[in-house]
Structure formats: structure tokens, C-alpha cells
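tool=predict chain=A
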Amino acid sequence: MNNNKIYFLEKLNFTLKKVKNLYLFFLLLFVLIITNQSCINPFAPGLVENYLENNILSDQKSIDGLFQNFRYAYMFKDTLVYGELLNDDFRFIFRDFDKGIDESWGREEEMRTTYRLFQATQNIDLYWNDVVNSIGDSVLQDISRGFNLTIIFSATDIISIYGRVNLRISRPNSEAKWKISQWRDESNF
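tool=predict ok
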């Protein structure tokens, strides 16, 4: 009988080790599943790997494509797309009517200012009007174009800007993307 007890205790100890290992396995499996599921947001839109393949953005090798991408960047508050519109030597020029002089800033300040604008708004609508003037060649263009811009900060804080923009766009060769080198603002704001 003593051998039976020892056999029974050894079998019980072996069974407990199996249960413990099985318990640890399921606990680890549960933790992995929870960790994996916590990284999935069913309400988030999927990532778009290539904007052009999904016809979201236009081909910036055309001037019209540059303006369509500009509108997209503003409407969807997309600073990545907006940054692709600006040349490294970009200058934004505006008239300071109080001082009676033209002021300007570079690409870095433009990106910061645009980011803050995008963060502060609920909605932005940009509509390009007809091109008033276009002078240049296949690698450098000066374009004057009207626009309507509506910026909605809140239901009671809406700004409408109507004006004209004078853009100098350039590219290194006729096969490259157009980028904005200079933006002279002539809006009513």
C-alpha cells in the first residue's frame, strides 16, 4: 500500500506539473492575444501605402496636379503632403500693411505655421479659381491664381478669405515634380 501511495503522489505531482505548464501556456497565449488586439483600432482608417496608386493625390509632374495636391493638403490637413509641395528654398511673402513693408519667412517657418493652422481648425475648404496669369517654361513658372479659403475654427468662428496668390514653381527638369519656390500672398486677410 505504501508503494501505491508513492505511485499516486508521483502521478499527482506529474499531473500538477502538466496543469501548471498548461496554465502558463494559456496565460501566455491570452497575454499575447490581448497585446496583439490592443494594437488594432477597428475605427481607424487603414494606412494608404501609395497615395497615387489609390487616386487620392494627383501627379505633381503637372501644374494642375500641384494645385490639386495643395487643395488636398489643406482640406485633409495633411502636413506630409503639404511639405512635398514646397521647395527647399521656399519663401512665403506677405504685405504687412501696418508697417507698410513686405515680410517673408522660409520653409521651416511655413511648415510650423501650417501645422499650427491645421491643428487649430475643425475644417478647411480651399477652392482654386481660374489662372489669371501664367508665364514661364517647362522648369520655371510664375502663376497668378485666385482662391477662396474658408477656415472653420468653431461653429461661431469662421473666416473666409478671397484673394490671389502669386506662385513661382520650379523643378530641376521636365520629368520632375513641380514644387513651390515662392508664394506671394495677395489675399484680403
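The chain has a mean pLDDT of 84. Strands lie at 86-96, 101-106, 123-136, 140-154, 157-170, 179-187.
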